[in-house]
Design a protein that fits this description.
Number of helices: 20
Oligomer: single chain
Structural class: mainly alpha
Length: 470
């Protein structure tokens, strides 16, 4: 893997090499975090069995949705605004964005967490028909506030290009803490022990994230905070709010609907297959930790040719590095699933299907972030909404009849479809081809110039970071 990254980086320009180099540096952290998350999932599967794993993973999925509701679009908005302000060396605005984002997210996530705690029994009995889901779900509700805060802090660190710190907060500390606590004291308490491990790990990660932010921004302590257009910030957050909620629902909907129509064992088998298939897009996730700030930098300079070249090359790199994983999951899915225990072997077809969907997702590249970082959040929202409606329709059509395999088809089709549609839109909007779309589909020079109008229309006016008052 390291030799592949070195060979690829020798073929790239300065900007692409910067991304690959930082991705290589971040890769080790991602490997550690993903490895510990994989070991934790394996322990859950082996110690709790398919039924216990199903209860834990269903509770965790509900909490992930609650965290998405709690943070909304603030995480991506803070990444975008902080990246733009930091590239202009506007540290007063950086402090203002972080402070307001932290305040709004804390207030809203506390409300969401309390509602989840109150509604735990209604969800467990009335929606999913599984009374033994209530207690672990109540425990897991305590992770909503720290889960939101660590994401907010992690995205803010990405805006400053503190990639290692951001990955440590968002990708390493929670699986590491969950694994350590579960092995030390949680295993003897079954599903509740797993829930306690997850909650305590989120609390520790959020506290550590706050310390890492202070270490990364010593100059902000003496800063008074600049003038900042809160309305502009919240407007962008609202558009991104829909994207985050719908995007997570899009990813988790098959598992949720399987929780309604399937057994606890079905949920456990599908979730293990899903988490394993996600290893296929592991490299894309590593790239997405670095590339948004680079997209913001190049777009601020209006260097669309270089942005096009960078996105295409990064898509090629992710496809190349993801190919061994998808090949392994396609050729030997049963051997992979039996590793988690004999109850999980029936999830082999689901693993193969989900792996193909994730490979397409990885091969298309970071097109979603192109839309976010260039202010086209509404377009991404509409794409995500269309795919969300599609996953609901496919879930109703396939899951009652084919169970775990039907859920896998619903997840794979929509995961691949979202990025394929976004890639086509990015090509038509900016002339950026992350896939080899036919050249006759490229926009005309006039259409491309019009797409860049929002900033360039006012001749002679400097480009200010979004959110700054002129």
């Amino acid at each position: 893997m390291w030799s592949k990254l070195r060979r690829v980086s020798s073929l790239l320009d300065g900007h692409s090499t910067e991304i690959v180099t930082k991705a290589r540096d971040a890769f080790l952290l991602r490997v550690c975090g993903t490895g510990m998350a994989f070991v934790f999932s394996t322990l859950i599967a082996r110690r709790l069995g398919a039924d216990g794993a199903g209860l834990y993973f269903l509770s965790q999925t509900i909490v992930f949705l609650a965290v998405a509701l709690g943070r909304g679009g603030l995480g991506h908005a803070m990444l975008k605004f902080i990246a733009n302000a930091a590239s202009a060396k506007d540290w007063d605005t950086v402090k203002a964005v972080f402070g307001k984002g932290l305040f709004f997210s804390s207030l809203w996530s506390a409300t969401i967490g309390l509602l989840l705690w109150i509604l735990a029994r209604t969800l467990a009995v009335g929606v999913f028909g599984k009374p033994d889901l209530e207690t672990p779900l109540r425990w897991m509700a305590l992770a909503v506030v720290p889960g939101v805060l660590l994401i907010i802090i992690g995205e803010s660190l990405k805006g400053l290009k503190r990639i290692k710190s951001a990955i440590a907060v968002n990708g390493v500390l929670v699986p590491m803490g969950s694994l350590v606590v579960f092995v030390a004291i949680g295993e003897r308490y079954g599903v509740l022990g797993a829930a306690f491990s997850f909650v305590s790990a989120n609390i520790v990660a959020a506290l550590a994230g706050g310390c890492l932010w202070r270490l990364a921004t010593p100059d902000l302590v003496s800063s008074s905070g600049g003038e900042f257009d809160t309305r502009s910030f919240l407007k962008s957050s609202i558009h991104l709010y829909h994207i985050v909620i719908m995007g997570l629902f899009l990813t988790r909907a098959p598992g949720l609907f399987l929780g309604v129509w399937g057994t606890k064992a079905d949920i456990g088998v599908f979730d293990i297959a899903f988490r394993t298939a996600m290893l296929t897009s592991f490299v894309l996730n590593a790239m997405n930790s670095i590339i948004p700030a680079k997209i913001a930098e190049l777009y601020q300079r209006r260097d669309m040719e270089l942005l096009d070249r960078t996105i295409r090359r990064m898509a090629f790199v992710t496809a190349l590095l993801a190919s061994p994983a998808v090949a392994f999951f396609l050729l030997m899915p049963s051997k992979v699933m039996v590793f988690f225990g004999p109850d999980f072997v029936r999830g082999a077809p689901a693993l193969a299907i989900l792996a193909v969907g994730q490979f397409v997702n990885a091969a298309v590249g970071s097109v979603g972030f192109v839309l976010i970082m260039t202010g086209r959040e509404k377009i991404l929202r509409n794409i995500t909404l269309a795919m969300m409606l599609l996953v609901v329709a496919l879930s109703f059509l396939l899951i009652p009849r084919w169970g775990v395999v039907g859920a896998a088809w619903a997840g794979a089709i929509t995961a691949a479809g979202q990025n394929l549609v976004a890639s086509f839109v990015v090509m038509r909007k900016f002339g950026i081809r992350s896939l080899p779309w036919p050249r006759f589909l490229l926009p005309s020079k006039e259409a491309l110039a019009e797409s860049l109008c929002p900033v360039t229309r006012k001749a002679g006016e400097p480009v200010n970071p979004p959110g700054r008052k002129r």
